[in-house]
Design brief:
With 92 residues, the protein is mainly α. The chain has helices at residues 38-45, 59-87.
């Protein structure tokens, strides 16, 4: 008799069947298997060649930049045309 304990004494059932691995349990060599590209990219982006940083990688950056600018200008023109058409009274 008396009060029941609020906190259960047994551990709850696992929700996911796998156990978690701690970062300290993993060996240092298995944590990252790729090549570190940061020094190469730092050399590329810090080169004083007069190009802005968003165009330093060449053709893919130029293509992405021009596509973005074309879509932005096209969307602005479309919005202005839509506003002009909405401001005109309808002929009935």
């Amino acid at each position: 008799q008396g009060l029941k304990p609020i906190v259960p004494t047994e551990s709850p059932a696992l929700i996911f069947g796998t156990t978690t691995k701690l970062a300290s349990d993993l060996p240092a060599t298995d944590s990252f298997l790729g090549k570190n590209k940061v020094p190469d990219l730092q050399k590329l982006f810090q080169k004083a060649d007069g190009l802005p940083v968003h165009l330093k990688r060449g053709v893919p950056d130029k293509l992405l930049y021009r596509t973005t600018m074309a879509l932005t200008i096209g969307g602005t023109i479309y919005c202005l045309v839509a506003l002009y058409m909405a401001s005109q009274p309808r002929n009935q």
